[in-house]
């Protein structure tokens, strides 16, 4: 039942009971015979309308007005509470300008404490992520980078070169003059297209095998470098908007890994012609968005089975962020990561 209607009915009932009590107390106080008094009230008229009916109408009207006012008042207060809860869910900072009635001050204080606690937990998670990132850079990442570089060199010097030679050979055969057999000519063109597609996939694989650490670069420099390398090796149109901002090393490391995984998935699966990249800071949040116009997929079908999606989501959660992927078949894919920036207070004067 609607809160306003509930308060209206409650006020009408209270007004009716109060009116009955006052009438009975009047009969008792002035020693009026109750049976005769009720009969007189029923027979009495105010104009052409019975006095009791008029009194009942007044009671209902008065109760409705009072109930509507009280119901509206508390409904607005509940909306404020709901707004604050939505802010907690979204990770927004407490609003000091929000006026809260005295009746709800204790609830507001508890909600503010919950927000501060969640903020402290996020800050702690980001601090741990930064420490882990530094440890990885000092040990395992060097070994992983060396192995990836070795594998990339071997693929480039062997398979990639052989694919290039095969592509040149097939182009020369097709340009020398098409064979008289139409079926053979069709097969040769199919082989040339397959070799060309294999070259694209090899280039995507080599990009995927590039070093995963930023090597002293900022997140923006790493993203720009990866996109520049992508445009040189893969025929895809890239539109990028990258802004300057400062963020902890651990957050940079995880965001760059998510971005690299997203680009790798786009190259291997999306078959996209256009790629839009957005990296900026808004409302104390880092927003990284990657959108392609590829073949898309059913997110529900691969949500539990895709290691890459699960890995990206875990990396976002590790720094207190969220990851959202929207995709539909033949309509492209949109990936968005949002990570809150925690400004640490200056403690130099402590």
Number of domains: 3
Largest beta sheet: strand ordering = 3-4-5-7-6
Percent of residues in helices comes to 55-70%
- Structural class by helix and strand composition: alpha+beta
Based on the structure, what is the oligomeric state of the protein chains?
A: single chain
Q: Number of helical runs? A: 10
Query: What name does the CATH topology of the largest domain carry?
Result: Heat Shock Protein 90
Quick check: average pLDDT?
77
Broad shape: elongated
Describe the model.
This protein is α+β, with helices and mostly antiparallel strands and 350 residues long. The chain is built from ten helices and seven strands. The strands form two sheets. It has a five-stranded mixed beta sheet with strand order 3-4-5-7-6, covered by helices on one side. Strands 1-2 form a two-stranded antiparallel ribbon. β6 and β7 form a beta hairpin. The two termini are 55 Å apart. The C terminus is likely disordered.
């Amino acid at each position: 039942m609607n809160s306003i209607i509930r308060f209206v009915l409650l006020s009408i009932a209270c007004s009716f009971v109060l009116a009955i009590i006052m009438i009975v107390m009047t009969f008792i106080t002035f020693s009026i015979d109750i049976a005769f008094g009720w009969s007189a009230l029923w027979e009495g008229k105010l104009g052409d309308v019975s006095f009791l009916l008029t009194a009942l109408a007044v009671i209902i009207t008065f109760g409705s007005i009072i109930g509507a006012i009280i119901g509206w008042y508390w409904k607005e207060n509940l909306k404020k509470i709901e707004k604050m809860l939505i802010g907690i869910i979204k990770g927004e900072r407490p609003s000091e300008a929000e006026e809260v009635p005295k009746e709800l001050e204790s609830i507001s204080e508890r909600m503010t404490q919950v927000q501060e606690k969640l903020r402290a937990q996020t800050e702690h998670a980001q601090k741990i992520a930064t420490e882990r990132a530094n440890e990885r850079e000092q040990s395992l990442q060097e070994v992983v980078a060396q192995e990836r570089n070795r594998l990339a060199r071997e693929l480039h010097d062997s398979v990639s070169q052989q694919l290039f030679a095969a592509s040149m050979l097939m182009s020369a055969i097709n340009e020398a003059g098409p064979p008289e057999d139409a079926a053979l000519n069709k097969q040769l063109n199919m082989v040339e297209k397959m070799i060309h597609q294999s070259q694209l996939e090899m280039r995507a694989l080599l990009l995927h095998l590039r070093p995963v650490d930023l090597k002293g670069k900022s997140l923006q420099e790493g993203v720009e470098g990866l996109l520049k390398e992508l445009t040189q090796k893969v025929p895809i149109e890239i539109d990028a908007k990258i802004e300057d901002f400062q963020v902890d090393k651990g957050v940079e490391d995880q965001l760059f890994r998510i971005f690299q995984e997203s680009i790798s998935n786009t190259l291997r699966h999306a078959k996209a012609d256009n790629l839009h990249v957005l990296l900026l800071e808004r409302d104390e949040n880092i927003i990284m968005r990657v959108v392609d116009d590829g073949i898309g997929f059913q997110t529900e079908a691969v949500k539990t089975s895709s290691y890459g999606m699960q890995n990206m989501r875990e990396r976002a959660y590790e720094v207190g962020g969220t990851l959202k992927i929207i995709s539909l078949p033949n309509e492209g894919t949109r990936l968005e990561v949002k990570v809150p920036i925690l400004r640490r207070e200056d403690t130099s004067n402590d």
